[in-house]
Amino acid sequence: MGTKATKFHISRTHDIIELWKQFHALYESALSGGKITPQDEQKFMDLKSEIARRFQSLAETTEMKGVADVRSLDVVSRVPALSKIPALSEMERGKIEADWNEGHIALNRVLGSLEAAKDRVRLGLAGPRTFSSFLFNRWMILIYLIVLVIAVYLFLFGSQGGEY
After folding, report:
1. What is the domain extent for residue 144?
2. Neighbouring C-alpha atoms within 13 Å toward the C-beta of 37
3. Is the pTM of this model over 0.85?
4. I need a surface site. Which of 54, 88, 92, 147 has the fewest CB within 10 A?
């Protein structure tokens, strides 16, 4: 993954983590028995959709194995509506809370992996991509062209030099 792509995915992961925190804040608010308005329900539904959409995009566009394996994000689909949260059993609440925490940790692991990938590129430890970027950087291409011109010159005119 290139540096631009890595920076984009880091930014996207930060956004998902922020949405994840908002999801939990709304969940906690509903648990505390606060009044839930139709606007709150719509915000909650929009938030769930945004989390699912952004996470799917991240999972499909990164080359990291761990992203697609984050199953704890299924908690978003298990909480149907804010108004249903107070009626959940204690066991269901505990499961949702555990899954939310697992998802939060998993998202931060993904973020850490992306940041490590960015650091590897920055430090020149990115493996084959660093070597290929060395082979095809501007200076190396210039050197290749100079060597090619010298080789062609020697081939065309080099054999005539000894016949004086």
Report:
1. 127-164
2. 3
3. no
4. 147
